[in-house]
Design brief:
By secondary structure, the protein is of the alpha/beta class. The protein has a single domain, classed as Rossmann fold, CATH 3.40.50. The protein has helices at 2-11, 23-40, 42-51, 74-85, 99-107, 143-155, 169-178, 186-198, 202-211, and strands spanning 62-68, 89-96, 111-115, 128-134, 156-165, 217-221, 225-230. A hairpin with a 3-residue loop joins β6 (217-221) and β7. The chain is globular.
Length: 237
């Protein structure tokens, strides 16, 4: 049963995969995803993982964070709040392929949004302290996903954190059930289930990173979340 659902998800396009999707639908879906990240713990899991690379630094300093596929920019803003409690200022930059999404990230405050492709980032090598990519990798199977990981590593100076979904029938059922009382857009309800079955096991995510040449430390978190993190080649101490 799970195998059939995975095959269905792999061949079924999500609304956010289509650049022609109406801007209003894009914004509504991104707002719902931000609520999912908050409700299921995805935002806090990614922020805590980024926080591992802030430990031991002096307070009062400024650190750059690039979020590739930033959506509504809820996760980098959560990371900025965590950093602020440690006396560190995160300077946030987001990348989105869709203009409507980039505008939403900028409108919500504190994020300089750039319209670009994650597989060809318009940043110099080693130009950003921390690089985050949350819930984007499952949209990019095979070579496209490998190119994304290589680009994340290329632009990072201190660390890369990739956050995604741990595949589970229970997670899919949970997204579907909460979508009604939380009044999600119908596109979110459908895409949420597809995304879960496009997600990964812990071993699969580690293997994808390894295939791109990275020895990532992969962790499971509550709420069917996974994170992978590594220090890029030539990372700062």
């Amino acid at each position: 049963m799970t195998g059939a659902l995975r095959r269905w998800a792999a061949r079924t396009a999500e609304v956010l995969d289509d650049p022609r999707t109406d801007a209003g639908v894009v914004v509504a879906t991104l707002r719902d995803i931000a609520r999912i990240n908050r409700f299921f713990g995805g935002a806090s899991a990614a922020a805590r993982r980024l926080g591992e690379f802030l430990d031991g630094g002096a307070s009062g300093r400024s650190v750059t964070l690039l979020d590739v596929g930033t959506g509504a920019a809820d996760i980098p803003r959560a990371a900025a709040r965590l950093a602020a409690r440690r006396g560190i200022t995160l300077r946030l930059v987001g990348v989105e392929r869709v203009l409507a999404a980039a505008r939403e990230a900028a409108r919500l405050g504190g994020v300089a949004a750039v319209v670009a492709d994650g597989g060809s980032l318009p940043f110099r090598t080693g130009s950003v302290d921390l690089v985050l990519c949350a819930k984007l990798l499952h949209h990019l199977p095979g070579e496209a996903g490998r190119r994304l990981l290589l680009e994340l590593d290329r632009v990072a100076r201190r660390a890369v954190v990739v956050a995604d979904i741990r595949r589970s029938v229970f997670a899919a059922a949970g997204i579907w059930l909460v979508s009604f009382p939380m009044r999600f857009h119908p596109a979110t309800r459908r895409d949420g289930v597809i995304s879960v079955f496009r997600g990964f096991s812990r071993a699969e995510l580690r293997g994808i990173c390894a295939a791109a040449g990275f020895d990532a430390a992969v962790k499971r978190h509550p709420g069917w979340c996974l994170t992978a993190a590594w220090r890029p080649r030539g990372a700062a101490a």
